[in-house]
Amino acid sequence: MPHFFFNKKVILLLVGMVFLVALISFSLRDRTNATLPEQIIKDTVGVAQSIVAKPANYISGIFNKIDSLLNTYEENKRLKARLEDFAVVQAEAADLKLDNKKLQELIDKSESLKDYNPIHATVIARNPDQWEEKIILNKGSSHGVEKNMAVMTAKGLVGKIILVTPFTSEVELLYTNNPNYRVSAMVLGDKEAYGLIEGFDKERNELILKRIDSSLTVKKGQQVVSSGLGGIFPKGVPIGEITEVSTDDFGLTKMAYVKPSADFSILDHVVIAKRTSTVIDGLDGNATNKDLTNPPEVNEEEEK
Amino acid sequence: MVRFLIPSVAVLLFLLEPEFAMLSPIEVKGHIYYLVPRFLILYLIFISIYYSRQRAVMYGLFFGVLYDVFYIDIIGLYSVLYPLICFLAGSIVKVIHQHLVVTTSISVILVAILEFILYQFFYLIDFTAIPLSEFLRSRLLPTIIANALFLMMLGWAFKYLINARVLQRAREVS
Question: Which UniProt keywords apply (chain B) (predicted)?
Answer without folding.
Answer: Cell membrane, Cell shape, Membrane, Transmembrane, Transmembrane helix
